[in-house]
Recover the amino acids of this structure.
């Protein structure tokens, strides 16, 4: 995440949001339909029912989930009501109505695939599970009994989807798996949707992009294929600017990181704090933030990050294109580095290098990029240690200095040792939270100890200030 306090700078929320996925889940790739269309039908991986009663349950709910998939993806809003139980809340119903509306084809606009997200795969299905069956809350069960339900089940469900398809072939992202629970009720041979985790007394399932109203989509050709800009109402300035900036931003990140990343992205512009919070999770506090990068999961053995999205706050609408370009390059650096960055990597390296790539070529002197740090050095308080993670807290008094210090360390390494060794430095240090292994990585990349690195950095800062 990046911040806007006077000048653009990152905030702690970025590190937290960046390193914690919005949704989690794992599963194998499900073959797509031969023509690249949305796949539907019986689930390919489910647990085997132990008896005829459970098998009948599973078959009935599978039909319900297949109907839900077909209704949503065809945009048939009028059919939503036939899938829902009378006990379903208005908020739960609105979720599906909104999703179906967002799947409806829209009038073609230049740069749009057809105004909506394109999917290579999309389906709801029963999830394999070995957990004990959850009980339907007594209050909900009472409503279902009064309505004449003969059975109720807290069904383990997963949504499997992948952006792409024949109209957006360059997206081709790995399959995202979102796990949740649906309360379902039986009436004769039919099953109805009652609610999700919210009906169980917990937090409702976090919404997906297409479950918030007013979604439209445009494409941008980038070096790795088709990139996607998803936007909500009242975010036209930011989305239009991002579409123009994205190809060059991808190239700028590639110039530093190399071609070992997808070189495409999914960007999302939000119009209010509620939208932003819904998509990034973890409270989603905006503060002075400009953007956050979120993801579903990271497959470290295959060095693949699944479901990465760069989500922009409403503040992005007010940014001049050069400032927005800095934010975009910063976040795309996180996208490129995600699969080779430990979840608990130190923030001074992850945020510092992202800042370095984002800001490259936008300043002439230290004071332009790091005014607070410059004043600190001028006052005779040159840093003698790298900032710890706590110093990056968005609401803390030291956050601006921490981010500027992290950026300046990356800038020092690039200036003293070159960008190729800065990347090697990042790959070694960001791969671990173990200080001993970090020290070994510093020596392997730069040929100096941590203490010698910090001393050299301090001297460089003093020279830059002079």
């Amino acid at each position: 995440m990046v911040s806007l306090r006077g000048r653009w700078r990152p905030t702690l929320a970025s590190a937290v949001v960046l390193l914690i996925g919005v949704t989690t889940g794992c599963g194998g790739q499900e073959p797509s339909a031969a023509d690249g269309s949305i796949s539907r039908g019986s689930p390919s991986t489910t647990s085997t029912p132990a008896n005829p009663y459970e098998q009948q349950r599973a078959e009935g709910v599978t039909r319900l989930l297949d109907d839900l998939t077909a209704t949503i993806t065809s945009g048939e809003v009028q059919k939503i009501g036939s899938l829902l139980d009378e006990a379903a809340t208005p908020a739960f119903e609105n979720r599906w109505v909104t999703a179906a509306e967002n799947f409806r084809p829209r009038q073609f606009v230049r740069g749009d695939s057809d105004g909506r997200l394109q999917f290579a795969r999309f389906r709801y299905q029963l999830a394999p599970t070995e957990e004990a069956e959850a009980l339907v809350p007594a209050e909900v069960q009472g409503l279902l009994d009064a309505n004449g339900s003969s059975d109720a089940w807290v069904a383990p469900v997963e949504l499997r989807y992948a952006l792409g398809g024949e109209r957006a072939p360059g997206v081709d992202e790995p399959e995202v798996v979102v796990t949740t629970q649906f309360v379902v009720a039986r009436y004769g041979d039919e099953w109805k949707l009652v609610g999700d985790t919210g009906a169980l007394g917990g937090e409702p399932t976090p919404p997906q992009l297409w479950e918030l109203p007013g979604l439209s989509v445009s494409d941008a050709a980038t070096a790795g294929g088709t990139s996607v800009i998803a936007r909500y109402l009242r975010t036209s300035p930011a989305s239009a600017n991002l579409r123009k900036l994205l190809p060059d931003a991808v190239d700028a990140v590639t110039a530093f990181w190399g071609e070992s990343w997808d070189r495409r992205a999914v960007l999302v512009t939000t119009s209010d704090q509620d939208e932003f919070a819904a998509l990034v999770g973890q409270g989603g506090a905006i503060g002075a933030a400009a953007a956050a990068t979120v993801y579903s999961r990271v497959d470290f053995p295959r060095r693949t990050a699944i479901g990465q999205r760069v989500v922009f706050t409403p503040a992005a609408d007010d940014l001049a294109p050069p400032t927005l370009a800095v934010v975009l390059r910063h976040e795309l650096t996180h996208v490129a580095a995600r699969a080779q960055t430990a979840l608990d990597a130190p923030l001074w390296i992850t945020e510092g290098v992202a800042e370095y790539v984002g800001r490259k070529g936008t300043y002439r002197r230290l004071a332009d990029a790091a005014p607070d740090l410059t004043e600190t050095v001028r006052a005779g308080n040159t840093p003698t240690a790298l900032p710890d993670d706590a110093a990056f807290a968005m609401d803390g008094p030291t956050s601006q200095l921490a981010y500027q210090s992290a950026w300046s360390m990356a800038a020092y390494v690039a200036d003293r040792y070159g960008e190729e060794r800065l990347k090697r430095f990042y790959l070694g240090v960001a791969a671990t939270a173990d200080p001993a292994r970090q020290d070994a990585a510093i020596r392997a990349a730069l040929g100096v100890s941590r203490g010698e690195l910090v001393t050299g950095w301090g001297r460089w800062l003093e020279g830059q200030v002079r």
Residues 3-46, 107-113 have pLDDT under 50 and may be disordered. The radius of gyration is 24 Å.
